[in-house]
């Protein structure tokens, strides 16, 4: 454990935990400190001025990162017939109907993103207790219940990230890899913040985006000046 401790201490050197950094500087600090033996994931966490226990303050959506997420997602599609063939052709990893529902009920979940055609939702609805807690339930609001399975599979493979506010009013997501150029990371971060901004619910009062921080898998969290990511 000692070496992990040393790395954490070293990573925090030169970072003022109370300071808000402009996005450009924050990305630069993250990249400098991402020195693990693997390509670290860069994550964003946003504190929002909402109480998700109220239905009119729920924040949910999807963001197509302009430079991809750097992750290769396994995509599962619930579809039949021609739509199942279309999903396979688009590069879906797992495609099926009743037999896929049965597999998932047994705990065989070989996908990271789940898409369904609208006619399959009667079947897929039975999987709410399995897929719901994992954040995998298809939803028309984020484009994962659709007849256009080709576009949905392409978006999932290409770097679309779903977001959903948690109990404490926090949204977080992976927005790239430490190996990305600073410009690509900044573009992805701005695109994500813009998507969350546009998903502002009707019931949100006061300051909507309160705090923004970015970090890499093994690195420290760095607070970002919100107006440098809001395009202001």
From TrEMBL:
Keyword Ribonucleoprotein among UniProt keywords: yes
GO cellular component: ribosome
One Pfam family per UniProt: Ribosomal_L1
Keyword check for Calcium: no
Keywords linked to the UniProt accession: Repressor, Ribonucleoprotein, Ribosomal protein, RNA-binding, rRNA-binding, Translation regulation, tRNA-binding
UniProt xrefs under PROSITE patterns: RIBOSOMAL_L1 (PS01199)
Similarity remark: Belongs to the universal ribosomal protein uL1 family.
Subunit-level organization: Part of the 50S ribosomal subunit.
Record HAMAP family: Ribosomal_uL1_B
Protein task: Binds directly to 23S rRNA. The L1 stalk is quite mobile in the ribosome, and is involved in E site tRNA release. Protein L1 is also a translational repressor protein, it controls the translation of the L11 operon by binding to its mRNA.
Name of the featured protein: Large ribosomal subunit protein uL1
Gene name in the database record: rplA
């Amino acid at each position: 454990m000692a070496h992990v401790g040393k790395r954490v201490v070293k990573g925090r050197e030169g970072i003022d935990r109370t300071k808000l950094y402009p996005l450009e500087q924050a990305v630069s600090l993250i990249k400098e400190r991402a020195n693990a033996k693997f390509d670290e994931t860069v994550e964003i966490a946003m504190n929002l001025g909402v109480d998700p226990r109220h239905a009119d303050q729920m924040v949910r959506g999807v963001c197509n990162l302009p430079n991809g997420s750097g992750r290769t997602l396994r995509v599962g599609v619930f579809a039949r017939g021609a739509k199942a063939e279309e999903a396979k052709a688009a590069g879906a990893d797992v495609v099926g109907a009743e037999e896929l529902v049965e597999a998932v009920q047994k705990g065989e979940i070989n996908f990271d993103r789940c898409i369904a055609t609208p006619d399959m939702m009667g079947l897929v609805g039975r999987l709410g207790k399995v897929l719901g807690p994992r954040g995998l339930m298809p939803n028309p609001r984020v484009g994962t219940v659709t007849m256009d399975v080709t576009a949905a599979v392409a978006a999932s493979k290409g770097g679309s990230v779903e977001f959903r506010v948690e109990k404490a009013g926090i949204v977080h997501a992976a927005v790239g890899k430490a190996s990305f150029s600073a410009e690509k990371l900044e573009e992805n971060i701005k695109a994500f913040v813009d998507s969350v901004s546009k998903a502002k619910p009707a019931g949100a009062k006061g300051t909507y985006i309160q705090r923004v921080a970015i970090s890499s898998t093994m690195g420290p969290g760095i607070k970002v000046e919100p107006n440098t990511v809001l395009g202001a």
